């Protein structure tokens, strides 16, 4: 019997959005265009156009040990080339940002290969080979998983997820890596870790409140969907907890 | 153990303010008779990157600028998220509310009454100011900041 | 909003939330009613002194009326001050670091320097082996000698080196017993009077538990346990006990019975406050990692002060517990870091946890007719999984909604770990107080964690999350290596040993199970009686208030050293 992933419970729009982001067969809506060069600039790991620094020679040029796992797993492009491991980290506002830390990790685990995500309350980091990272980061920025005002790429100094938004609707950023221009477009003026960029990188206009509420993956009783209202979601968590409790108390199948 | 001798209130806008709105709010509130002490609170806007890989680099930020309250220049070190006031009596709070109603038209605000500022020296104050601290200044700056409060003048 | 308004007891008592719309017309101010700065004699003195200086130098100087009242002092802060919950004291986070807070230091000193030593074995040795007579008079004589010797004075040999009494004045020994007649014959200065310190019912129960036995509640000098370690306490006390028996009962210092007395005082009759830890932790007995949660609930005496408010009593355990287990144990003993205070204070400042917990109490009343203000085994609810699920779900959802509705609360607890610990603690306390079952409380904690993580798609950081994401499975487990009843778990319990923001709350959840039943003690009647002693430097019935007194430099600790250091 083929296993059909369900991704998660819930009848709310939040639950639906979560499932969509996780499901690799769901095409994430592309909302904005950001060039490869722009992504490389904001990531700040290498100068655009420069060669990828390597951690080891390309796999084709080095003797691989006789390892069944290596035969089983097809290396990613970055691994093949011997790229070093780099990261992208996102801070997501709790005021209806379209993706949120654990949601990112779940979605990335379903959609990407060769990654090492780390999940915290104010940020989520994912590490992988550099050229793979650039592709992944591009997808994460160009699609419905991103909002220019409420999601930001921050390698350090990430405080902002739990704060009120700024007057102009931007998530607070001590380093103000991106600014809302007069033309309504959000532009990165610093890279991920706060080093000023040679030129601005535009990432599009912030989405409006209605869109955010319809695409958010966090429950929020003040600005979005109340958790309490998704009864199926709450019931499912209670069920998971109950089953784990019972099995831990008396580890046997009923 | 402690009793606030004067009423306190704080204004909590539902957004963190940019410097222009902060300037308008401060002028409106500080211009009301009966304000004893004011404190603005919010996330820090340091002039240089304080930690992380870019530590020590300049940190230009459009939200950090010098504003003018009365005829006093105030260099913002934080993005204004709350304004706390100690007032002489409750009627002043009503006037503060009216001032806020005029200013916060695009988004809402909450006016909370209670105690929010220290009124009594703690160990930190003792370590910083010694035994004879002027209680007017207690709790108005972050404990490890060297700055002193500014004195707003030219308001009445 | 109706639900939120119902919950507005403590948090909003102090905030008195008011949205715009009120119109209180009053143009009058009473600005000068207090006579401004001139109400202070000291300020008047300054102003007078300044006049003379200004005249002589011709430059203006101290002018508070112009500079203060002619203008308005305005400061900027990134950090808000904290209110130590239900104490009314506002302070800085720094004031709550244990290094800066003498009350916090004394709290731990008073625990670490304490052992309880039974007297029955020693008395049996004296009576049966040596044929000596043991009477209330001889016990009083012994206690006189012991209170001379315990601080470090010589009793048996002459010319011995002694400690200066001014350095060890916090050291003493009292006794207690369940035998009222015997207690009557003990000099009052040496007796912990169970009848006076507890309600009549509680005293009867505790005396029944203690029986006719007599125990010594021993507190060695703070300065000794600080210079050495918790393992010193029983050794130091046993040495003085041995010497005092020899002196009081006119024994020969070398006779073989002394070995029996020593064995009783060092091992057989000793109740440590904390058990020894595995070798990899490298800690002896009486160190924080070995304190069982049930025993900690007996150290804290807030249920004596608030017998009809198990929520309040449990919240005091939270405050005391996070201070000891997070700030001191994990923060310093185990990691050496300084960041732990930030996590810990979230649980005992600004009334936020208090607010969430009392919401749970109100919910119990409304839905289950459980009156938390009348603790009794009779109204305890059956600890079913369904009940725990319902309570934890509701309390957790309410807490999340409070954070969502009040942005300042979310900014106060700006990190996920702070929010997680506080919400789960409220859930755990609600479950344990109402069921009288510590494991049911722990189970509620873990449902809160899962629900929080799924609702906001975030929890703490991954090190913090680990134990919470797998905790449901061990919360009711009792098998060896897999589980234990809550009272017997402790900071070094396998799944609990690693991370900040849990252990103090667990201790409170365990204690709450007993406070909710109105039990006289959680784990050990001996510990309960020992820490009821008003002669202790720290008042264990009011730990959060004591910490607040430390923050404002009102708490006077032991461990005086000015006698032996140069004058400043």
Molecular structure report:
The complex is a heterotrimer of chains A (254), B (156) and C (568). Chain A is of the alpha+beta class and 254 residues long. Chain A has helices at residues 13-22, 36-43, 68-72, 77-81, 101-111, 130-142, 209-215, 231-249; strands at residues 85-92, 116-119, 124-129, 151-153, 178-180, 186-190, 196-202. In chain A, strand 5 and strand 6 (186-190) form a beta hairpin. The mean pLDDT of chain A is 96. In chain B, the strands form two sheets. Chain B has a four-stranded antiparallel β-sheet, with helices on one face. In chain B, strands 3-4 form a two-stranded antiparallel sheet. In chain B, a hairpin with a 2-residue loop joins strand 3 (66-69) and strand 4 (72-75). The mean pLDDT of chain B is 91. Chain B folds into two domains: 8-117, Alpha-Beta Plaits; 119-151, no CATH class. Chain B starts with 7 loop residues before the first strand and ends with a strand. Chain B is α+β, with helices and mostly antiparallel strands and 156 residues long. In chain C, 57% of the residues are buried. The N and C termini of chain C lie far apart (59 Å). The chains are: A alpha+beta (254), B alpha+beta (156), C alpha+beta (568). Chains in contact: A-B, A-C, B-C. The interface between B and C is large, with 76 and 57 residues. Strand 2 (35-41) of chain B pairs parallel with strand 2 (72-77) of chain C, so a sheet runs across the interface.
Based on Cα principal axes, name the global outline of chain C: globular
* Oligomeric state of the chains present here: heterotrimer
- Give the averaged pLDDT of chain A, no decimals: 96
| Total of DSSP H or I helical runs spanning 4+ residues of chain A | 8
Name of the CATH superfamily of the largest domain in chain C: Methyl-coenzyme M reductase, alpha/beta subunit, C-terminal
First-residue to last-residue Cα separation of chain A: 23 Å
Task: Let me know the average pLDDT of chain C.
Answer: 89
Identify the overall geometry of chain A.
flat
Helix-residue proportion of chain C: 40-55%
| CATH class call of chain A | Alpha Beta
The pair of chains with the biggest contact is: B-C, 76 and 57 residues
CATH class of the largest domain in chain C: Mainly Alpha
